[in-house]
Amino acid sequence: MSKLHCIIIEDEPLAVKILSDYIAEVPFLDLQATFKDAILATEYLHTHTPDLIFLDIHLPKLKGMAFLKTLLHPPAVIITTAYHQYAVEGFNLNVSDYLLKPFEFERFLVAVNKVKTANKEKLTDTQEPKDFIFLHVQKKKVKILFADILYIESQREYIRIVTQKNTFVSKMSTHEIEALLPPALFKRIHRSFIVSLNKIDSYTAEMVELNGISIPIGRGYREVLEGL
């Protein structure tokens, strides 16, 4: 059974425990991490792509709704809160469900089954794998072939996509573009770099060379290229 990888963003320890216990009871859910505020979760999302977020609204530092608005391509989100007045705003942001605390396991199960069904339908609707991607570049959608991409570089809230003929800049994070790329063709080798495996000319433990360009391999990514 394919599992939905999920995280919890919640500052109340009791609420975290209840959600964790509920998640443990559902075979198709896999809890990967919990966070007491959205800032810590944002850092996690730079390098991970969960399928589902359980999100509280009243969080320290950055409120849940404000956090949700910062995500360009959010995963499924289930709001968990004691405040019903944010329901309309939540559904306007395309959340999967809205759970009012305290909620029973049965209501929780309805919400996660809804996410599971939607995820299954999305996979079923997927046709043959695409060999391209459309990205927002200077107020228009630009088609970029996977076969043309050399590497992708993070530039704060933007990414720079370097192809064999052109360079494109789009407003999104590296973890967001990584989720859209075929993992068999592209690998992140550094916090700021994703490279096309087919374009690699040579590499060492510290550096990758492609098309005459040297790109560093991050310390935590040195095992990524093993087996090439």
Automatic annotation (TrEMBL):
Modified residues (4-aspartylphosphate): D56
Keyword Signal: no
Superkingdom as given in the UniProt entry: Bacteria
Keywords recorded for this protein, A-Z: Phosphoprotein
Record-annotated Response regulatory domain positions: 5-116
Segments forming domain HTH LytTR-type: 137-228
Keyword check for Secreted: no
A GO MF label: DNA binding
This protein's name: Response regulator transcription factor
UniProt source species: Emticicia agri
UniProt lineage: Bacteria, Pseudomonadati, Bacteroidota, Cytophagia, Cytophagales
